[in-house]
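Narrative summary of target 7.
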Amino acid sequence: MMCQRTTNAVTFMFQELGYHCTNYIDDFGGTETPDKSAAAFQTLGFLLADLGLDILCDQTSPPATVMVFLGVSVNTDKMTSSVPPERLQELFSRCSSLLSVDHISRTELQSLLRVRYCMCSSCACVHVHPLAHSTHPQDFCCLSTLVR
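Modeled conformation, tokenized:
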């Protein structure tokens, strides 16, 4: 709960600076026009650093028109979002493996439900800002943080 409250506060501050983003737990994603996307990406990085929040560089994606955010592939050129086939395959494989067992541990069930929940909530959570519905291509960027 604390992590979500922290990133909600960061999102509010970032939006007060004139940029757009959404967050889910410790991930941030946003859309901006190409002329503002690099500045928005840099500003979010500075904001997180100023607040003492570590950025996981290996999970950080600079502005682009196609990107995977929260397990959902977002394409701002085509205005689509989809779950990548490998994520669906992971869920199907895990479900299939459970068909042959009589019992499942609580931990295994929680893990399976977490994957399914994350996939479903990501589709609902990932939205392209209304600004992106213009006739101009948009850049999408995401940052993953380590909130302590």
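The beta strands are 22-24, 27-32, 54-55, 61-64, 66-69, 72-75, 80-82, 139-146.
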